[in-house]
Amino acid sequence: MSDVKSAEAACPACGRVSLLLRKPLYDGFTKIGEETTCAACGHVFGAAELPAAAPSKPDLFSADRPAKIEIFKGGEAGRLCGHCINYTINPFRQWCARHRREVEATDSCADFAPKPPEKTAPPPEKPKNILL
Q1: How far apart are CA 5 and CA 53, in angstroms?
Q2: What is the rounded distance in angstroms from the CA atom of residue 121 to the CA atom of residue 131?
Q3: What is the pLDDT of residues 1-11, one digit of tens each?
Q4: DSSP 3-state of 101
Q5: Where does residue 60 fall: left (phi above 0), alpha (psi -120 to 50 degrees), or beta otherwise?
Q6: β pairing state of 94-96 and 101-102
Q7: For 40, phi and psi rounded to 5 degrees?
């Protein structure tokens, strides 16, 4: 018998699959065992009636799930206003310089113009020691 205890079982008294309640049994202040009852009807389970492990759950979404989940298809993500050369952001608002209106970074339009790739700056030169 497995040490794994199930949290639910099919009750033979009421016929429903319900949660199991585990209540300790005491003799004075000494714990002598545990009583398992059906949460729906209160039926007391015997040791032979208890399931060894939790019942298996159906895997509902595994058959139609793709191997790799992609949110955007093709170049769809690249046409967002946040990637446009006309997109201006400051602490107070996000602005489209071409249409002169407020936009969100996730908006898109037909007049999209991509930003040029960022140039990496060369490392700064070390100052030369000048003695006076």
Answers
A1: 6
A2: 29
A3: 444 566 788 88
A4: strand
A5: alpha
A6: antiparallel
A7: -80, -50
Asked if 9 and 45 count as a contact pair (C-beta separation under 8 A), the reply is: yes
> Mind listing the pLDDT tens digit for each residue in 110-122?
888 888 887 777 7
Which of 76, 75, 79, 74 has the alpha carbon at shortest distance from 115?
79
Locus of tokens 């400051």: 90
Beta carbons within 8 Å of 38's beta carbon, 6+ residues apart: 9, 11, 13, 14, 16, 18, 20, 21, 45
Q: Which long-range contacts (CB under 8 A, 24 or more apart) does 91-100 make?
A: none
Q: Are 83 and 75 in contact (CB under 8 A)?
A: no
Token couple for 9: 């079982």
So what's the pLDDT on residue 103? Answer: 93
Residue 9 in contact with residue 50, Cβ under 8 Å?
yes
Cα 63 off chain centre by: 19
User: What's the token pair of residue 130?
Assistant: 């000048």
Are 59 and 17 in contact, with CB atoms under 8 Å apart? no
Domains of the chain: 1-55 (no CATH), 72-115 (2.20.70.100)
